[in-house]
Amino acid sequence: EPEVTQTPSHQVTQMGQEVILRCVPISNHLYFYWYRQILGQKVEFLVSFYNNEISEKSEIFDDQFSVERPDGSNFTLKIRSTKLEDSAMYFCASSEGPIQPQHFGDGTRLSIL
Amino acid sequence: DQQVKQNSPSLSVQEGRISILNCDYTNSMFDYFLWYKKYPAEGPTFLISISSIKDKNEDGRFTVFLNKSAKHLSLHIVPSQPGDSAVYFCAASAPLDSGYALNFGKGTSLLVTP
Hints:
The complex is a heterodimer of chains A (113) and B (114). Chain A has 113 residues and is mainly beta. Chain A has no helices and 11 strands.
């Protein structure tokens, strides 16, 4: 069964450094998303992306965050200058359409030191 | 703000019995609802969904019920199996309102005992 893949599974970064999280969505999906889950809290929406542009973003997704689909397969989340509070599990998801189930990757655990 | 609430953090059920997981929501614009299952160190796995035009959707052992007037949905698992032990998340979206973002509950940890 097709799946969303995320790399790396765990990223450790010094505060203030840039980090790029990578995702390969399911190949025929057109809608892409990033979510995060801080330890002990609920999964929170960050951003949705369709037709090479951001459809919606949450208050969390400030100017330090950006997303890109650099080629036909990858979807990346960049955090320009990481903060301690960015430590979380980051999940990528994709869906065929807007009112279709979103399928999630296994996440990247981001640890900021 | 908690637009999606799962008020039971945990539930224990005997194998073979019915598991009922509940979810309440506050945003009347939500019109698409999903249940996900999550094991440790894995991402959420889609189980079943329902749109607001229906009040029930069934897929094998899993049935989701939607009561729009009460802003309540539930997931029934019959019969429950030990492999169903996981955290279950309810999620909702308002596609025309919010770019298809999913709003998640905090999850209910289900334990199915042999």
